[in-house]
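Sample entry (259 residues):
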Amino acid sequence: MPRLRLTALAGVLIVLAACASAEESDGATSPQDTLAGDVTVFAAASLTDALTEIGSEVERMYAGVTVTFNFAGSQQLATQIVEGAPADVFASANLAQMDVVADAGLVAGHPVMFARNRLQIVVEPGNPRRIATLRDLQRDGVTVVLAAPQVPAGRYARAALDRAGIALSPVSLETDVRAVLSKIALGEADAGIVYASDVAAAGDRVTGVEIPDAANVVATNPIAALAAAPNAEAAQAFVAAVRSEAGRAALARAGFELP
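Predicted structure, serialized as tokens:
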């Protein structure tokens, strides 16, 4: 995946991080010295590729910062945060799980939406089962895996199936959307429903099948720094990086739609 343009990212970080006031001995401000320490980002599994890229650029911008990620289902992450897990930033796959954290008084300021995602059917490379529509998932002998109902991707998938009037029994329910993707890439099932960004991330290991707008569901991705962030300044800088033009470019390359 191409690297982000460091200059674009740096400009936004310097302006929005609100932590570049210390002056050097010659009177100049050095943005590389204004942040330090670990910043821990809890993020939906579907955001793995884009946020990892952005995190690497934050580390290059601020030599003293280390970005650590916890990627999982948003419902699992929200539970961990509410139960006291130390985290600086939460990036969710839906508004509902962000609301869980916000309603507990654990969000600093207001969450902001930074990306959208559409669903796709994911199948084995070359689509050997010739699956073209959601209705094809009902065919005899077609094995389907979905994310569990409490996972945003699982909830969205069921909403899409309901819109299309499809009832089916998946052979397994996975803990997050990347687990669904992995099942298909490994040939352990014929089809699943994931985000477009997941299909893009898998490259030639899978094939994506479009779901028409009439049945599709658009996921929204909110992000927020957390009120009890151990490294509040770095948390704000990371959120700023995600919302920067360079961050948006990384998200677009990963298959997300931009607000």
